Amino acid sequence: MSVSTPARAAGAATCALTVVLTGCGTPAAESASHTIVLADGHALGGYNPVAGYGPAGEAKMYDGLLRLSGGEGLPDFEPALAVELPEPNSDATSWTVTLREGVSFHDGSAFDAEDVVATYTSILDPASASEARSSFDMIEAVEALDETTVRFTLAHSYAAFPTKLLIGIVPSESVAEPGLAAESPLNSNPIGTGPYRLTGLSPDRAVLEANEDYWGGTPEVERITLLYVPDDNTRAQRMATGEFDGTSLPPHLAATFADRVGMSVQASTSADWRGISMPTGNPVTGDPVLRRALNHTVNRTMMIDNILAGHGRAAHTPFPEVYGDAHNPEATFSHDPDLAGRLLDEAGWELGPDNIRVKDGQRAAFTLMYNSADTVRRDLSQAFASDALAIGVEVSLEALSWDRITPRIDTDSILIGGGDEPYDPDTQAYKTLHSAYLDPDAGSVYDNASRHANAAVDEELDRARRSTDPDERAAAYRVVQDVYIDDPSYVFLAFLDHVYISRDSDWVKSPPVLEPHSHGVTWGPWWSVHTWTRSP
């Protein structure tokens, strides 16, 4: 997965909510002064941190040990259920966390160290089959030293460990019995310590009520109603008629709201990338010269200007500029179709009579799949195919559901996205590039989706992962990017801005935050909704 509402009469709010939920009456939706109605394109439910929900701390029903701070650039970490930032030992293999006292879960049970131990132990338990498990595999042990102190022991030095302390903590009782995380009651009945508690859930509607006993103070926004509206155009139309206080939209649809009185368009910077996987096992995409040629022929600027309406930045590697010294500004591909053609000529890819290149009897043709529900991925795929055809490479497009895409990941290209945990270069790039994920039992099927191995990339990623010296880490990441440009395993296209529409209001909000791949109304203006206050 950076709205608000002016004061309104309660009667109007009741009418609006009826319109949103039943479709009856005149669409005049406005929510009450302390209530907001948001529409999302993402299905509701699945609210279990053990299953991987809210890894960046975005879950409104939960708190992590740490949380993010808003503002420009890479966010800082702040204490949440911890009372202070964790204390690492000299080589960052042991991290001690002191916990906040007097905190209760939504069910009234007290929060303590055993809950932290139980949450992380359950994530790592093979019986949970957690999709998040590989993200925490550096944890060798987690133990309660007393009721308010937890120690994490790691298998190796890991300076990026604070990123692993954002995920929500659940009561130990809720995970006392081992079992599949995907089948846990927490998915539909979340029990956390967070600023909101779930009070109603159906396939198309979730209601969050302010937690009056929240340790950080009762949120002033008293109720958030989330509506599942998967179609982009429908969300835009209903937003325009006043049914919602906010939603997320693709860039061009969002642009139609730019001059609408009483509404604002916000583009939040993210490290969320879009790119094309290039499976090594495919006889065409497995050719390293062809991958380099495609990286030079793709017109990233055109895609950002015309498809993303300017809301994005070119991506050549998975490292955005926000990483400062760890970003290598020289690690780019020039937009040079002539160079791309020469590379293919020299490698023996000759133009055939139909203007498609051939080498040793193999046509330069492959399939690119994209999710059929995502119009931005569709448009990027079409633009990529057009650029490839200009140098004699034929790309056939297939719009499919994810369950039909996944089984073909080893042989066919996919327009994919990444940047799930962008708050350190390690969590941004390691699973995308490291060959450890060629092992089918390691991580998600989408980790290292190109199934590519480069020993030099592995070595530098590991050096950066295990170093505690910021300068050494940054240098290693710059080398990774240099090596990658010579041997690319994807065609990265862009880092997206996430675009949101919100109704103008007098709420005072925190600054936006760098967003991960996850987006929707959990993020945007609403990422810190529990901190909103009214203008004096």
Automatic annotation (TrEMBL):
Family membership noted in the UniProt record: Belongs to the bacterial solute-binding protein 5 family.
Top-level division of the source organism's lineage: Bacteria
Cellular component aspect of the GO annotation: ATP-binding cassette (ABC) transporter complex; periplasmic space
GO biological process: peptide transport
UniProt protein name: Extracellular solute-binding protein, family 5
Family annotation (CDD domains): PBP2_NikA_DppA_OppA_like_19
PANTHER family: OLIGOPEPTIDE-BINDING PROTEIN APPA, PERIPLASMIC BINDING COMPONENT OF ABC TRANSPORTER
Entry GO MF terms: peptide transmembrane transporter activity
Species name: Hoyosella subflava (strain DSM 45089 / JCM 17490 / NBRC 109087 / DQS3-9A1)
